[in-house]
Design brief:
10 strands, hydrolase, Adenosine deaminase, four-stranded parallel β-sheet, A_deaminase, adenosine deaminase activity, metal-binding, alpha/beta
Amino acid sequence: MSPAPLDLPTVRTAPKALLHDHLDGGLRPATVLELARECGYDRLPADNADDLAAWFADAASSGSLERYLETFEHTVAVMQTPEGLARVARECALDLAADTVVYAEVRFAPEQHLERGLSLDEVVHHTLLGFEEGVALAADRGQQIRIGCLLTAMRHAARSLEIAELAVRFRDRGVVGFDIAGAEAGHPPSRHLDAFEHMRANNAHFTIHAGEAFGLPSIHEAIAFCGADRLGHGVRITDDITVGKADRAELGRLADYVRDKRIPLELCPSSNVQTGAVASLEKHPFDLLARLRFRVTVNTDNRLMSATSMSEEMVKLATTFGYGWSDLERFTINAMKSAFIPFPDRLRLIDEVVKPGYAVLIG
């Protein structure tokens, strides 16, 4: 039996696992417009879905992480009500399920959704309700997905301990972990040690945005001082890798440690190019890190800003680096091994969903 063609329609049928996806970076353009009208937000840069989608993609492609982050002003602005939060979460679950994402961890920063009087607990409650509704609706359509929510603290603010406490409080209601995000330069992860200590004291999982716009010091702090379970992006780990003649690679102590400890890298190819973390997809270190057997995972980061999906990210990587179905299966299993859900649940998804799904495609 020959392998299935590795094209976008077929990749859409493959089971996928997603660890790094921002809720406020994945809205449907039409939803942004409708929610803006409902809440009276009049600062959108376009008045129809196609033009708005193009604006987000263009504005996010500046090559600057700071400029990229400015696009979220518009999406966050329309996610300030119970109805808005629930709708965005519901549609997120449906869109991912339609792309055959069988497991996803979706993150957002509750502290950014308080402008209309909601409390942090209310923000999380309504978002989780939206995810539950979306998962149930997807199941009715024959599409199975499990979603875990990550609560993010903004690294330039001073609420990280409060958000970590919130993550622990909701850990049995759909929240699976904690994260810090935002501009890296000038905001090292070590400023939030009390939040990470709270997570460790409660045997809870967390990831840290590190090594995207800033280099090895950010990664070192995230691992050595903060104890991160995973690295959000982490592309700059290649600053500690020297490639010599015959493509022989020499790893520095930090890169060696990351690989030895199997610390997962939440790589987001399209987004990494947009923010200037890498010059182009062809120069993305994904393939180097995959060949060196780092635990690489494929992620979307922000589906609206990057005009992408998990299937599209996989096809781009396969086209650029010559990957086959076995490679895509390995990256998916890497993600499932690294998920913030109990081991038996990870194993069940790998053995009962991921492997059988790829066996059909591998032929």
